[in-house]
Amino acid sequence: RNIQAKAEDESDKLVDPPKVEEKLGAVPNGLSTDSDVAKREAESISKRSLRNNAEKFEFQAEVSRLMDIIINSLYSNKDIFLRELISNASDALDKIRFLSLTDKEVLGEGDNTKLEIQIKLDKEKKILSIRDRGIGMTKEDLIKNLGTIAKSGTSAFVEKMQTSGDLNLIGQFGVGFYSVYLVADYVEVISKHNDDKQYVWESKADGAFAISEDTWNEPLGRGTEIRLHLRDEAGEYLEESKLKELVKKYSEFINFPIYIWASKEVDVDVPTDEDDSSDEEEKAEKEEETEKSESESEDEDEDSEKKPKTKTVKETTFEWELLNDVKAIWLRNPKEVTEEEYAKFYHSLVKDFSDEKPLAWSHFNAEGDVEFKAVLFVPPKAPHDLYESYYNTNKANLKLYVRRVFISDEFDELLPKYLNFLKGLVDSDTLPLNVSREMLQQHSSLKTIKKKLIRKALDMIRKIAEEDPDESTGKDKKDVEKFSDDDDKKGQYTKFWNEFGKSIKLGIIEDAANRNRLAKLLRFERYLFYSLNLSYEYFYFSRISLPFVSASFSHGVCTLL
Ligand SMILES: Nc1ncnc2c1ncn2[C@@H]1O[C@H](COP(=O)(O)OP(=O)(O)OP(=O)(O)O)[C@@H](O)[C@H]1O
Question: Whose CA is nearest to atom 13 of ligand 1?
């Protein structure tokens, strides 16, 4: 209700401010030549007519700053916009599929039931469109989500951009949509939600956006189409081959089919036009044929007269071509998945497309009373806000699926807080599908899942140390030899410890059941910890009053942290 109220506040203030009208049609900053400017001004006149009756809004200040940075960015890897749009489309499809678990009607009929993503190009008009049949956005969603309510990540990302300039991180800050302005100077978002009419959101990233009820485009049925009017210098995104390459590279693990409207050259037989025989070559051919036919029998002559003459020509046809294999990686046998595939899967899961591989991963099937599949990853770096309000916010980093259907990425009951630096997913065969979050929280198998996940997670971390040659002591000479060639693993545990050591220490305080396992993961302060533990046991066995023991123990741990 808060968010809604805020949206209403914003929109009340911002509808039709006069200066916004002046800005419409303005040329985005950073475009170079005079002829460019003139051309764009001319274009904007036709686009302005589309906006005549539209409601105008100003972007929230932080969003505007973010867009300025993007549009003026010299960042060379502009490819990232496509994976952000595909990822948003996939999220929207997940949402409608989830709703359909309890209400089949939401999917509608015919093509609307197809949960897919489509990419289309219009080379002449220089438009690239990405369409999904996901949940769509109501008018209010469009206003809130695309401009007036800045997400918490917006200012963090703006700050980060000022120091690092690495736009690749945009998806991790929850502002991926705006990366469209790396390649487009005018963007339309056409959207249809089951609860509202079809609307068009449009903006030239000049501080304002406009929304109108869509009465001119083809009805979408349900879902969203993003139309990018590409900048002149972004012409490469009108090449099918480029888009296919990008989908393969970044969106391989999207769990919905991605199609491209692809052209294909086919050979077609068409009747030859008899009157077309004026040129010399064809005349010569004809003469040859006549000579031939004179020497052939009369029967053959009759046959050839009956057959219509045809020639083979190349024709361009279009069809939807599937670009990805939708078999989920976690359903495959872990032995058949390559290291590179795990690394790529990790990158698409966490929207981190840097070159750094995860420090470790664990892919397993739990069998027995509670069946589930899981893939866990230790990221190469701690996120910027890992310990921000550690006790007050519920952060979930595991995605929960039930029988291949995405349920939630906000379900924080799967791992304890101190392990919330891990990324990954759990796909349960035991949890029921048609249930609310509250019922899931109380489900009896959840405890078992959590217990197994913790064990597997701690094993995975222990293995980082075991495989790290730097961790071997004099006693493990054989191991040192075994790993001495393995440069990849060298120093990995120190790296882990530097990034996530604090989480292990918090685990020592919070997770009594696994304290011994966690103690083996401690570094540097290990001996201090042992002495604390010893003193704890000493106090305990000498039956000194318990409150005193726990107070002195917590004091000791606090000092240690
Ligand atoms: N194709 C779409 N269908 C429905 N809603 C969408 C679509 N694209 C964007 N949105 C809405 O706009 C919001 C903003 O998108 P943006 O990419 O900036 O961030 P995000 O997707 O929330 O972040 P993250 O990538 O971390 O999930 C989304 O949260 C979603 O509500």
Answer: 145
Pairing, β 258-271 against β 117-122:
parallel
Distance between CA atoms of residues 93 and 477, nearest Å: 53
CA angle 514, 515, 518 (to 5 degrees): 85
Residues 6+ apart with CB under 8 A from 183: 78, 81, 128, 228, 230, 231, 234, 237
What angle, rounded to 10 degrees, do the helices at 80-102 and 240-250 form? 60
**Quick one: CA dihedral 442, 448, 452, 455, positive or negative?**
positive
Instruction: Tell me the CA–centroid distance for residue 195 and ligand 1, in Å.
Output: 18
Quick check: 283 and 352 in contact, CB under 8 A? no
Q: Is 394 marked as binding a ligand?
A: no
397 is in an annotated binding site: no
pLDDT at residue number 15: 38
Position 553 scores a pLDDT of 57
- What the block records as the tokens of 33 is 């030549």
What residue type is assigned to position 556 of the chain?
G
Mutate to test the pocket of ligand 1, among 3, 67, 91, 227 (most ligand atoms within 8 A of CB): 91
Q: Separation of 496 CA from ligand 1 center, angstroms?
A: 32
337 phi and psi angles, rounded to 5 deg: -95, 130
pLDDT given for residue 455 in this prediction: 95
- pLDDT at residue 478 greater than cutoff 60: no
**Exposed / middle / buried, residue 531 (Cβ in 10 Å: 0-12, 13-18, 19+):** exposed
- Give 544 Cα–ligand 1 centroid separation in angstroms: 57
Is the shortest distance between the CB of 352 and ligand 1 below 6 Å?
no
* Residue 377, both tokens: 């990853």
Residue type present at position 123: K
| Whether the Cβ atoms of residue 426 and residue 398 lie closer than 8 Å to each other | yes
What are the Cα distances from residue 46, in Å, to 33, 51, 52, 229, 231?
Answer: 21, 9, 11, 13, 16
Is the whole-model pTM more than 0.90?
no
What is the C-alpha to C-alpha distance for residues 546 and 561, in angstroms, rounded to an integer? 22
For residue 280, what pLDDT is reported? 55
Distance from Cα 23 to the centre of ligand 1, integer Å: 26
Burial letters 434-448, b for 16+ CB under 10 A, else e:
ebeeeebeebebbeb
Instruction: Provide the token pair at 82.
Output: 């496509």
Nearest residue (CA) to ligand 1, atom 20: 174
Token pair recorded at residue 107: 């999917």
- Give the atom of ligand 1 at the shortest distance from the alpha carbon of 171: 25
Task: Say which residues have a Cβ less than 8 Å from residue 316's Cβ, sequence separation at least 6.
Answer: 263, 264, 265, 266
| 214 HSE (CA, 13 A, CB side) | 23
Q: Does ligand 1 have an atom closer than 6 angstroms to the CB of 413?
A: no
Does 309 belong to an annotated binding site? no
Whole-angstrom distance, CA of residue 322 vs CA of residue 304:
43
Burial classification of residue 103, based on how many CB atoms lie within 10 Å of its CB (0-12 exposed, 13-18 middle, 19 or more buried)? exposed
Give the dihedral sign, CA 301/306/309/315: negative
pLDDT at 171: 76
Render the burial of 327-338: b for 16+ CB within 10 Å, e for the rest: ebbbeeeeeebe
Q: Which of 272-276, 335-339, 447-451 has the lowest mean pLDDT?
A: 272-276
Question: Would you state the structure tokens that stand for residue 11, as one six-digit string?
Answer: 């929109």
151 is in an annotated binding site: yes
